[in-house]
Amino acid sequence: MGELTFITGPVRSGKSQRAVEHAKRWGSNTVFVATYRSDGSDEEMMARVRRHRAERPSWRTLEAPLDIAANLATLSPPPSGVILDCLTLWASARFSASDDAILSDWSAQLAAFKKAPWPIIIVSNELGWSLVPPDRETRRFRDLAGTLAQFTAAAADEAWLMVAGCPLRLK
User: Is the pLDDT confidence value at 113 over 80?
Assistant: First the structure.
């Protein structure tokens, strides 16, 4: 059964770096799952992608913005461990669906991750520590991200909060 670790925190808090450092023990057959798929039009986001790539070893990268578990199951050789970065981008790719559909799909992903023969680290952003957004869609996304984080933390064997580069173990 797969060991599931959840790492959450605000933007630029060291979440991805912590995940990479933890996953280095899995060796060169680690797979990095990128949930963001670019069309190349957002140069600032592409700069973020390039920075993240430069900060991690030359592991296989799987672009899987939707059915991550099914894509992982097709890999040969299978991974020795997986980093999924990040849950909030996965949710944004599905945002046109209903909240119930997104939560159901994520629950199915979590169930598959727990059955996988490799460990997985899921990285996510904390979005609800600021002002209440003025528009309905942004509030909906913030609330959805919080609910997805709760589902993930409940399923995880370990949960960590990163703040200013410092890890705080939640469970």
Answer: yes
**Residue 31's beta-bridge partner residues?**
60, 82
The token duo for 23 is 């996953």
Q: Which CATH architecture has domain 4-169?
A: 3-Layer(aba) Sandwich (3.40)
Options 15, 22, 52, 142, the catalytic residue: 52
What is the pairing mode between strands 166-169 and 158-163?
antiparallel
Strand, coil or helix: what is 30? strand
Domain extents for the chain? Answer: 4-169
CB 28 within 8 A of CB 59: yes
Model confidence pLDDT, tens digit, residues 18-75 = 999 999 999 999 999 988 666 667 777 677 767 777 777 789 988 876 789 999 999 9
The whole-chain average pLDDT of the chain stands at 91
What confidence score (pLDDT) does residue 105 get? 97
Respond yes or no: is residue 22 known to be catalytic.
no
Distance separating alpha carbons of residues 89 and 81, to the nearest angstrom: 20
